[in-house]
Amino acid sequence: MDDTQLLRYSRQILLPQVGIEGQERLQNANVLIIGLGGLGSPAAMYLAAAGVGHLWLCDFDVVDLSNLQRQIIHNTDDIDKSKVQSACETLHALNPLIKITPLCQQLSDEDLIEYVNKVDIVLDCSDNLPTRFAINQACVTTKTPLVSGAAIRMEGQISVFKGYQADSPCYRCLYPSDDALVETCTQTGILAPLVGIIGSFQALETLKIIIDIGDTLTGKVLLIDALNMEFNRITLLKNSQCPVCC
């Protein structure tokens, strides 16, 4: 690293758990973020600021006025612009040292396998169950860690899935049925800072996985009740009948 990089990341490098070696791991990492909305916005910004060397950004949507209440990577001038383009501009302004690959498209199952194969970690910041199931399948198939977050109303959850491991569940173990009812914030609303909390936690878990430090949420689900500011962590076991990871 040169002097500019050392200064930019100095507060992280000072941490004994990170140091120069950890920062270099971040610089060499490839991370795919699927969804540049309420969760993907803070996650992408913190990963870019932390110096993750190559971010792959995927979203096929455009910025809408109703997004701006919580999707902090976009601003008013970005309305009607693709979310990927808007996010790229924000992240390059935040940290011009990183590489960004824009994927302004809806990924097919084959596309998912192709792109997930190219990265070290995937962040699921999407907002619908079919997409989450497809991302999970791709991550299990390619043996790629999945950092999954979700938020609705004033409640959120986050977990890390490594379903390709014999003793670790996948996302489908949490939602075994195709008919599971999953509401969206379009239907029920969302309190803006909650997605910031969940997205930031996704970035935090991603950094820990890359650097290989601490205890991650693998095999656990962290539940957040923002209204009462209560955090609960439950253990999630592998489902022996799971059609994806068993």
Strand order of the largest sheet: 3-2-1-4-5-6-7-8
**Got a strand count?**
8
Write the CATH homologous superfamily: NAD(P)-binding Rossmann-like Domain
**CATH topological fold name:** Rossmann fold
| Average pLDDT, all residues | 94
First CA to last CA: what distance? Answer: 43 Å
In CATH terms, what is the architecture? 3-Layer(aba) Sandwich
Please state the overall shape, judged from the principal axes of the Cα atoms.
globular
Task: Output the structural class.
Answer: alpha/beta
SS summary, helix count:
10
Poorly predicted runs = none
Rg, Å, rounded:
17 Å
Specify the oligomeric state. Answer: single chain
CATH class: Alpha Beta
Q: Summarize this, please?
A:
With 246 residues, the protein is α/β, with parallel strands linked by helices. The protein is 37% helix and 18% strand.
Descriptors:
eight-stranded mixed β-sheet, alpha/beta, globular, 37% helix, 8 strands, 10 helices, 246 residues
Walk me through this protein's architecture.
By secondary structure, the chain is of the alpha/beta class. It has one domain (3-235): NAD(P)-binding Rossmann-like Domain (Rossmann fold), CATH 3.40.50.720. It has helices at residues 3-8, 10-13, 19-27, 40-50, 83-94, 109-116, 129-142, 171-174, 185-188, 192-211; strands at residues 30-34, 54-58, 99-103, 121-124, 146-152, 155-161, 220-225, 230-235. Strands 3-2-1-4-5-6-7-8 form an 8-stranded mixed sheet, sandwiched between helices. A hairpin with a 4-residue loop joins strand 7 (220-225) and strand 8 (230-235). Helix 4 runs parallel beside helix 5 (83-94), helix 4 (40-50) runs parallel beside helix 10 (192-211) and helix 6 packs across helix 7 (129-142).
